[in-house]
Amino acid sequence: MQRHRFGRRAETLPEDQLLLGLEEAEQIEAAGEEENERAAPTERQARVAKRRANRGALPAHLPRVEMVVDIEDHACPCCRNGLHRIGEDVSERLDIVPAQLRVIVVRRPKYACRACEDVVVQAPAPARLIEGGLPTEATVAQVLVSKYADHLPLYRQAQIYARQGINLDRSTLADWVGRAAWHLRPVHERLLGTLKSSPKLFADETTAPVLDPGRGKTKTGQLWAYARDDRPWEGSDPPGVAYVYAPDRKAERLIAHLAGFTGILQVDGYGGYRMLADKSGVTLAFCWAHVRRRFYELAAAGPAPIASEALRRIAELYKIEDGIRGRSADERRAMRQENSRAIVADFEPWLREKLGLISQKTKLAEAIRYTLSRWEGLSRFLDDGRIEIDSNTVERSIRPIALSRKNALFAGSDGGAEHWAVIASLIETCKLNGVEPLGYLADVLTRIVNGHPNSQIDDLLPWAYICAPEIRAVA
């Protein structure tokens, strides 16, 4: 009962918590190594040599500041003749200059004609995102990335700026965010429309607490996520995710969001997706991770031979998936037909047999019925190499939303939640495509303010900014 009330719903340890534990262990190990190196110079030299051999190269695009460390006396220490240079040792270290605020001063000279009294000529003022305001588009982009990518609420950002002597009220930052979100709406709409033209999508939703001023508390809205990632089967379309806010979880919201989409939708067990399939002809593929989770909760609570056997069979399917990830859709389908089909074919009658032997009121019976009622959608991955075995792709895209929700607690209004969806969609799509979100948002806002034509809006989508520099690990 305690685990049911207070325990985790998922069967895996949260990655953030796992990394936190590893960080502490690595810190302790490093401190111990430093102490040993100080006590044993030979061991220190060996570790320094190993560190230099394994650290890789720093990116070529970073600016270099050269520092020459030369000898004071260029005379030979033996005969006092002049020394000549025969070479040099070059090493590179990564240095960080703290974020520096600066003021852009715009001067616009005025010109007049000595012969004509009323003639004054002056260049037009550059367009601004915030008319009459202080920030450049890059400053606004920094606020957006800090809030929606680094999960820093605006009041914390105001505190950071105050430490550098810049007093920016939280309401001022909120005004910047709202205006930027308004300008970015067409890009978000185009992103969602592009994703809906795909033959296959993932869908999921998560709660979005929203302040309800009339009642003095929060109401529960929903952020729906629609994602595409064809990389596991070598698809050519770039990955992306679009979030859409809705004040509730009704199926009508889902149907409205995906109007015009007729492909394969990979989802969890929420009943609203069935209504979507009935009304629009969308083909549903269900998620084996959600099936596994139900059996895991039973097996983790104590001895559960049926649940444990179900987990073993599901694990065999995942083992096969690990071996075919990254191959073409045809290869994946062929290997699933050869290896996975028999496992799935044996699994269904086994579940029906066990269901007939147990009480129908137990959690185990509920887990089995959940699985069998979605069997057609669960089996669909066997015949289509484009379909994943689960919907973890979109669930990974939900995690940043959960982090922002944890730090910010709630959105201030339905409009604020819509801004959240717009900006988070662009930032997360940038991350999926390896595009740096700060530079992307700064450039997009600048181009929009300067009258970028709507007919060329595809040039503003995150994957249009993909560049492929040579990137190597530096540590």
From TrEMBL:
Residues 1-66 form the Transposase TnpC homeodomain domain. Residues 425-463 form the Transposase IS66 C-terminal domain. It comes from Mesorhizobium robiniae. Residues 133-418 form the Transposase IS66 central domain. InterPro entries: IS66_C, Transposase-related, Transposase_IS66_central, Transposase_TnpC_homeodom, Znf_dom_IS66. This is Transposase. Residues 75-117 form the Transposase IS66 zinc-finger binding domain.
